[in-house]
Amino acid sequence: MSVPTPRPASVTTVDALVVGAGLAGLYMLHRLRGQGLDTVVVEAGDGVGGTWYWNRYPGARCDVESLEYSYSFSAELEQEWDWTEKYPTQPEILRYVEHVADRFGLRDGVRLSTTVTAARYDDARGRWHVTTDAGDAYDAEQLIMATGCLSVAKTPEVPGTDTFAGRTFHTGHWPHEPVDFTGRRVAVIGTGSSGIQTIPLIAEQAAELTVFQRTPNFSMPASNRPLDPAEQAARKQDYPAHREAARTSGFGVPVEAATQSALEVSDDERDARYEAAWGVNLVGLLSSYTDTIVDRAANDTAAEFVRRKIRATVQDPEVAEALSPRDHPFGTKRPCLDTNYYATYNRDHVHLVDLRATPLAEITPRGVRTSEREYEVDDLVFATGFDAMTGALLRIDVVGRDGATLRDRWADGPTTNLGLQVAGFPNLWMITGPGSPSVLSNMMVSIEQHVDFVADCLAFAHGRGETVVESTPEAETEWTEHVRVAGEATLYPQANSWYMGSNVPGKPRRFMAYIGGVGAYRQHCDDLAARGYPGFVFSSPRVPEPA
Questions:
Q1: Rounded CA gap, 82 and 183, in Å?
Q2: From CA 79, how far away is CA 188, in angstroms rounded?
Q3: Looking at the chain, which terminus has fewer C-beta neighbours within 10 angstroms, N or C?
Q4: Where are the beta strands (DSSP E) in 146-226?
């Protein structure tokens, strides 16, 4: 039995406490308020927006099209908001999130500049005691983590970062004011999505740009453009059918279902299909054939197609080869979308340093030293990614029943029921947590589905007069094994990716997302709801609250 935590004199009592005021947290607030639950959202930032509040680096934009990356819960919202580009920039997405917060009157339910530090479950009372860095405390029946899958920036594992005398930036925590690189010598360390987006724009300003690459990534042209008003109007008219197609798709983006293996068509036919998918969207190339993500020979056809595109763009053959991924199958690290990324390396003042050939040794007061030489720079930009999926959850000291900690439970990797709950941690919910489609999907589709599941499940429990909801250990074990088996049937485990936790030293190597598909996952969840949520136990606290 857990020991009840003494409550300080000033404790805010709520029905639900939501951690994070991004797209998930705001919709969760909206749903629970609609059910009459007293709900508060706490947010570490000084404004709403989550990912899109923090990620302000040059070139930051979503890799899912704006007409897809938007809420579907309100037909009025769908019709009244107009997007300007195919792929929205960070400022435009933030304006959209702020509009939603104002449109639905959500700001008064958000406590900004507040970081949750610890959460302890009181088994007898069936409630969570939550403390923050500001010394605030909350007594909550439900604790809902809308902390985001990519919200904890990862620092580089290289000595000397604190000795550098120039300016230092991280793409995950960019300054709110514009940064001018005009005439400066800039080093960018990292070529994941944020690096690939920001490098071309920094190159337009910098006198000299040196990119330090450990692992080349597959990237495809975004083919970004202004949105035609007629195109947007047509989509708005078709939104109900289009949204339903997204919800039942594999990745949360409607694409034509593949019917053939990449190995059963001619080279010319296959290349023509790849060419037709090139630069259309994030998933088109990966979804062109049925076996691209499960068969290495089939995958190699797509990978080589991208490598040919790189060689056709980059003029220096050695640089082109260094930029061409060969250590992981196409798609097993999240593919990137770019604007003139590869062409940027044709500029005389842009240089690529292959850290596999000359490893990074240290950051010095003057710049970056590899095994070969020191590069003197004025500015350092770390595009070194995130502690994905579990990072934000494990930063909080979460203690469940009988003193069990989430950190200990996940010491060998995350285990969950549906990516929503962990056995032994009643009334603790995760939105797009590990074990759900989350990062393998259009996050908006997965966020809405998870929020709706949690809200509906709580309405079901409260309708029975019960307030405690907990996954059974058996359901958690069964689902975690299903996620593992599904993942191992694909090529994803062959990559050292943040999907696998491989980018963080010491992190357990486990494929953390569910590859079974957004539509299949939704159908499974809907079936559970229709049958009264088997795999979840509903109960009442042993010590009722005073009348």
A1: 37
A2: 40
A3: C
A4: 167-170, 185-189, 208-213, 219-221
Give the contacts of 145 (CB within 8 A, at least 6 positions apart).
19, 20, 392, 393, 428, 429, 430, 431, 433
Q: How many CA atoms lie within 13 A of 429 on its CB side?
A: 30
Q: What does the alpha-carbon distance between residue 77 and residue 100 come to, in Å, rounded to a whole number?
A: 8
Q: pTM higher than 0.85 for the full model?
A: yes
Task: Give residue 45's Cα distance to chain centre.
Answer: 17
Q: CA-to-CA distance for 468 and 4, rounded, in angstroms? A: 16
Name every residue whose Cβ is closer than 8 Å to that of residue 534 and which is 6 or more positions away in sequence. Answer: 475, 528
Q: How many residues does the structure list for the chain? A: 547
The answer to whether 518 touches 247, Cβ cutoff 8 Å, is yes
Q: Can you read off the two tokens belonging to residue 410?
A: 């996940």
Rounded CA gap, 42 and 109, in Å? 9
- The gap from C-alpha 165 to its chain's centroid, in whole angstroms, comes to 33
pLDDT digits (tens, 9 = 90+) for 10-55: 899 999 999 999 999 999 999 999 999 999 999 999 999 999 999 9
Q: How many CA atoms lie within 13 A of 359 on its CB side?
A: 4
- Distance, in Å, from the CA atom of 16 to the CA atom of 27, rounded to the nearest integer, reads 13
> Would you tell me the crossing angle of helices 443-463 and 229-247 to the nearest 10 degrees?
50
DSSP type of residue 21: -
